[in-house]
Design goal:
Substrate binds at residues 25-32, 78, 105-108, 116, 132-133. The active site is at residues 26, 105. The protein is α/β, with parallel strands linked by helices and 267 residues long. It has a single domain (2-263), classed as Rossmann fold (3-Layer(aba) Sandwich). The protein is built from 11 helices and 6 strands. Helix 4 links the parallel strand 2 (70-73) and strand 3. Helix 3 (47-63) crosses helix 4, helix 5 packs across helix 6 (125-133) and helix 8 (172-191) packs across helix 9 (202-213). The structure holds 1,3-bisphosphoglyceric acid.
Length: 267
Amino acid sequence: MVIFKFLRSKLSQFMMKTNRLVLLRHGESEFNQLNKFCGWHDAPLSKGGMEDARKIAALNLLNANLEFDKVYTSTLCRAQTTTDIILREMKSSFVPVESHWRLNERHYGNLTGFNKRQMSDQYGEAQVQNWRRAFDSMPPSITPQNPYYFGIRNNPSFSDVPADQFPFAESMHMCSDRVLPVWDEIKKDMLNGKRVLVCTHGTVVRALIKHIEGLSDEAISKVNIPNCVPCVYEFDIKTGKLISPMTYLGDPEYIKAKTEQVASIGN
Ligand SMILES: O=C(OP(=O)(O)O)[C@H](O)COP(=O)(O)O
C-alpha cells in the first residue's frame, strides 16, 4: 500500500502542471481555550483541539482528495500534535515531517500567559488590538518575572535557535522576516511537485499569506486565521505564479463564526 502510494505520487508529480499548497493553523491549544497570549510558550492542544484536528482539518483535507508528500511544522507541540493527528487520520503517517523553529508562533513578549480581556482592561482595547495585529507593533519584552520566561528559555525544542536570534518579543514584521528562509524551501519543494502541508500558527500563516498574495501591512492586519481550517493555494509549476486566490476548506458558516471569534478580544 505504501509503495503503491509512493509510486502514484511520483507519477503524479511528473505529470502535474499546477500544484496546491495547504497552510493550516494548529488545533485549539489550552491557551487558546483560556483566551491567553501564548507565543513561544509550549501549550498543548485542548481536548477540543485534538478533536478538531480529526473532525475539521483531516476530514476536510480528505473530502478535497488532498494527499501530502511532505509536512513542514514548527517546534511547538501544538503544531506537531496537530500534524500527527492529521497524518494518522489520513493514513499517511509515513509522510516526512520537517520541524523548524522559524515556523514557531510570533514571540508575544511579556504578554505571554496573560488573558487578552484582562490585558485589554489594563491597557485598553486599542493598544491590545495594536499589539495583536499592527504589522510593526512590538509587545513589551518578556522579563524573568514572567511565569513563562524560564520555561521558554530552557525549552529543548528551541535548541536550534541561534543564541543571538532568540527573541524576547517579536512584531509580526520580525516574525515574517524569520519565516522567509523556510518559505523559500517550501516553495522550492512545491514547485518540484511535492504536495506540501504547512501546519503552523496564526501569525505564521498570516505572514505566509501576506508574502504569497503581496498584501499591504494594512490589509494583513484585517486577516484572522481560525484553528484547523485548511487554506489552499494553487501555483503554476513552470512560472511559480499563483493561479487562483486562496480558498478555505470547510463549512463557510463555521469558518465565518470562528474567524470573527479570533478577530475579537474575547472574554
Ligand atoms: O499563540 C498564539 O497563536 P497560535 O494559537 O496560532 O499559536 C497567539 O496567542 C494567538 O493570539 P492572537 O490571535 O492574538 O495573535
